[in-house]
Amino acid sequence: MNPNIAKLLNANLGESRAAHLLTLVTMPDGLPVDIEGRATRAEIAQALNIVLFGDILDRVPTGRAYTDDVAKAGGKVTFDHGALRTVKWPNGALPEGESAFTRILRPLGYVLNGTYLLDRIGMTGRSYAHADAPEQIAQFFLSEFHPERERYSDAFRAAVTRVTASSTDPLTPRAQSLLWQLERDGVLDVEDGAELVDLLARCFARQHAAPRLADYEVLLKESAEMAWIATEGNAFNHATDRVADVFALAEHQKSLGRPMKEKVEVSGSGRVRQTAFRADPVQREFVGAEGGIVQREVPGSFYEFITRDQFHDEAVARKRYDLGFDAGNAQGIFKMTAAA
């Protein structure tokens, strides 16, 4: 076990919870280390990913049950990627679209790995892989929703504006300072790295106030994806386990009665295959017509599965996993939050 990652997790989660998560998730081998014992950007990125994966387990009971099954069978989850949604629109104090997160990912060592036009759902997706260990540290799939598209009505855009206008910026001056140091040096003192993980984890949440129910209903008529953002914000939309055979896994999970997507999505290359559980429902607060708080059941986050084939990469003269994504796959997976 990498001692710096253990220290970063213990400081953020406590020793007991950190130890439990480390029994559930495969840890990367051979990450870059600093000769003076400071935490490298790869170690900090991995610790943040484990914290966010633990958050998914807390919020997605179906995913937690699956992960517990894997652990009981003596296995571990391979955390392939996490996904989150943003809005390319004025967001109060929060930067527009994915820029709210690229300012975090870049100092952590992430680089753009692919861009995907998700036209059916009015979004653009971009994947970011870690420069130091792209096959071992989970990628981020950041998507931007585009309210400016002609397909959306003026009433819809007005509702988006009312929902996002109250957004605050969770990235504190202290976090920005630590990110600047990390981007410059590639390392932080372990104590500073632990503090940064805590400060960054807070960014993966909803940053605006409870939406008006009337606005939510307007959004839901034209975009299930924007309606989801209205209630969940920038929380992890899903986390993904990289498995050997996603078809076999899907059939087994269906046999257990879990809410599995009917169809496995297959990329154009055939090398990337994905499926998912349907989103677990959650109770969320809204501002009602009379100004009081009302509750409604809406789709929450979910848990995904992916199989990636290896291929011979002539550029590096070796076999490697296909770390790409597919626009068709992504749009099929996004339906999981619309169907809950």
Structural commentary:
The protein has a single domain (about 5-335), classed as 2,3-Dihydroxybiphenyl 1,2-Dioxygenase, domain 1 (Roll), CATH 3.10.180. It is of the alpha+beta class and about 350 residues long. Helix 1 (about 5-15) crosses helix 3, helix 1 (about 5-15) crosses helix 8 and helix 3 packs parallel to helix 8 (about 190-200). The chain is built from 12 helices and 14 strands. The model has no long low-confidence stretch (mean pLDDT about 95). The longest helix is centred in the N-terminal third of the chain and has 19 residues, at about 40-60. The strands form 4 sheets. An 8-stranded mixed sheet has the order 3-4-5-2-7-12-9-8, sandwiched between helices. The protein has helices at about 5-15, 15-20, 40-60, 60-70, 100-110, 155-165, 175-185, 190-200, 215-220, 225-230, 245-255, 325-335; strands at about 40, 80-85, 110-120, 125-130, 140-145, 185-190, 240, 265, 270-275, 280-285, 295-300, 300-310, 310-315, 320.
